[in-house]
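Recap from last week: sequence in, structure out.
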Amino acid sequence: MNSVLSIDPKADFDIVCFSHLRWDFVFQRPKHLMTRFGQAARVFFIEEPIFDDGPTRLDIQNKSEGVYVGTPHIAKDTPVESIAEVIRGQIALLLSSHESERQVAWFYTPMMLALATELNTAAVVYDCMDELSAFRGAPPELVEREQQLMKVADLVFTGGHTLYEAKRHHHPATYAFPSSVDVRHFGKALTISEDVADQARIAHPRVGFAGVIDERLDIELLDRVAELRPDLNFVMVGPVVKISQDDLPERDNIFYLGMKSYDDLPAYLAGWDVSMMPFALNESTKYISPTKTPEYLSAGLPVVSTPITDVVRPYGEMGLVHIASTADEFVSAIDAALSDDAEKRQTRVKEFLAENSWDRTFQSMFNLIEEVIEKHSAKTEPSAAAVSEKSAGPEVTALQGEIYV
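Predicted structure tokens:
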């Protein structure tokens, strides 16, 4: 295990975060929140394991203030039934070397529940950012594992209001924390005038998308809209995941620019005329609350989206996003967006997003965690939701699958 420098935490607990999303993938909810928690407590961010020919080890990297990312490397010949035990041992060594006395176990995936059985849990948090069971490639036992996690969790956070309505009946302490935004970061787009090199060659008007390109995207809609309007150019920024590149529509006015860093996104958005969210309406999008909605708006862009529930309410109802279902409607909405009164829209956006920052979301979550810990301390008992081998259910058997995002 790589050695790292310890820091003095400001809180009297550490966070051990178990995530199916890797830290260095796209800058999503886990990274937004954990970078902020890292300023108040030490965060040990545990990724899914990598199976290779090297020795079994836990690679540790200090990625941000107070945030240590642990990537388990497991020898390919390790028996499946031993994987969880090996990783638990790696985590125990990590925590002991950092003199971590008690931890908040934070889960983004129920599939890693069995990795927390040896933690001295002050609280257990399930931050349910998506309905993962509906995603392509999701392990079949995920629903059962989520039920087990619900039983031991002190707090359940959801990534949107629709997801909250689906989960709140399963846990008494469920709270909706929809996608937030770093307004200062994406607001940089308002003052950027120089185009980025690989986008400069694309003519205007430009209609852009920035995010993971996967089964949630309605590629047939994108293809049809691009066919209907050859005078518009569609810019796709982001990695292609779980679908074949060969399945993506190829037209002279569709440009795939690949994955870009979070720091570079404002520069790309600054060069668009309209932003879009052409999501398919299927099981994998039923509960999503796209982070890109407030990001686009912060960048000063008009937005056109298919009728995703958490986009229609509140953004569509407030007139901040144009909603369209069919290709013809999408084209009409783009034309309307191109005619938007930008100054009027930005005034309304600024007022709305002032209450929806990641800083405010972090502070609300932190306060709830402290309340839970104080409640347990008052009873002079450990967390009532401490993860035991019994409560965690079967050993981890599905960690060798592809990461689902």
